[in-house]
Design goal:
single chain, about 400 residues, Rossmann fold, 2,3-Dihydroxybiphenyl 1,2-Dioxygenase, domain 1, 18 strands
């Protein structure tokens, strides 16, 4: 695994709420959805383990952690809609979405409601039916336990994670006790590869329910983690086992789209043929426009955006017009080359290109290093695009 990786955080406006997310690493996009009454921070140990290989996003669900919920209501369907909107807003193309507990339920809803948004699913500690499975009764017992002891560890944990924890507890109570579940046809209609994860000691959703969900899926896989109860993914003792299983599945089913191109950019690039440019950015870079207007395409990345605009003039291509910061320039060049991107050979005073990558001494001194490793390619319209890794 690569030791150095990118990390950022931000907010995305979705249906009146502000959704907070943290992003780590670079590579295939992987979204981790947390459980009920928790926050994206509970994924931190697993996210850190995966960030050497993947672009890992850990959002706070609506009303949880640092995300707002002005509507005052929670439902699994709305939380799934939020994840789909977050994926679109950040320009992620068909990520793998993994969820544990309530996050697993959200992942199932996402696949049913927004099947085009995800490449594959990981559903852990969740089951699509609440009554016959006993989940409704288990949630009712958990709520009674939380409310019975105002000084107990459960409420202490809520207070630590959420500013308005009483509202979150009330909204979650409604979601747990009123959820109608998914139908057998809904589950059978999920076409994405889906890994069902379970702990062999999970008191809420045990191996029997996990196996039943696995059998109901069209393209299911099943993994049972030994010596693991329901909180196990968040523990140092067993979290690494879950991380290894997630990584294995994401390698096999995740998209190589974007190849880590998620740095902050804000620029405008001319395109003589907008449809040709659209095909290049989709086929070669794995990027899709978030917004289309007559004569223009808008793309979102983490923390920024860039646009292609229709122009009769052509780009001179003699200077870098846009650049991405990447975690590993060699890996990114390799992936993009495999997708058909042709890199420039640039020899100039102070730099020499070897294998499509140049060592640039003294560039970007504000990053605290000695320079950067850089590579350049041209898009279909002749615009010169750069990649840079601080060293």
């Amino acid at each position: 695994m690569r030791g150095h990786h990118f990390r950022s955080e931000g907010f995305v406006p979705v249906d009146g709420a502000q959704l907070f997310y943290t992003a780590r690493g670079a590579g295939r996009p992987l979204v981790l959805v947390h459980g009920g009454l928790a926050s994206g921070a509970t994924w931190a140990p697993i996210a850190a383990a995966l960030a050497g290989e993947f672009l890992v996003l850990t959002p706070d669900s609506r009303g949880h952690g640092r995300s707002t919920n002005p509507g005052g209501v929670l439902s699994y369907s709305a939380l799934a809609d939020d994840v789909a909107a977050l994926i679109a807003a950040l320009g992620l193309r068909e990520p793998v979405v993994a969820g544990w507990s309530d996050g697993g339920q959200i992942a199932l809803e996402l696949a049913v409601r927004h099947p085009a948004a995800v490449a594959a699913l990981i559903v852990g500690g969740a089951y699509p039916e609440f009554d016959d499975s006993g989940l409704r009764a288990a949630h009712r017992d958990l709520l009674a336990e939380i409310n019975a002891d105002p000084d107990g560890p459960e409420l202490a944990g809520l207070r630590a994670l959420h500013d308005d924890w009483p509202a979150l507890l009330e909204q979650t109570t409604g979601m747990w006790l009123q959820y109608r579940g998914l139908t057998d046809a809904d589950v059978a209609g999920i076409t994405q590869p889906t890994l069902v994860l379970a702990g062999d000691r999970d008191e809420l959703v045990g191996p029997d329910l996990a196996a039943a969900l696995f059998r109901a899926l069209a393209h299911g896989e099943l993994a049972v983690v030994p010596f693991a109860d329901h909180p196990a993914p968040a523990t140092a003792e067993r979290g690494h086992v879950f991380a290894d299983l997630i990584a294995d599945f994401a390698r096999r089913h995740g998209t190589t789209a974007a190849a880590g191109l998620r740095g902050r950019v804000a620029t405008r690039l001319p395109a003589q043929d907008l449809e040709r440019a659209r095909r290049f950015y989709s086929d070669k870079l794995g990027l899709e426009p978030a917004e289309e207007r007559p004569g223009g395409l808008l793309y979102h990345t983490l923390g920024g955006a860039f646009a292609l605009f229709e122009s009769r003039g052509s780009s001179p291509g003699t200077f870098t017009q846009m650049a991405w910061d990447v975690d590993d320039v060699e890996a990114t060049v390799r992936v993009l080359s495999e997708r058909g991107v042709v890199f420039e050979h640039v020899d100039a005073p102070g730099l020499r290109t070897v294998g499509g990558i140049a060592d640039v001494e003294g560039n970007y001194p504000s990053k605290g290093g000695r320079g950067e490793r850089a590579a350049w390619f041209r898009d279909s319209e002749g615009n010169l695009i750069g990649l840079g890794q601080a060293v």
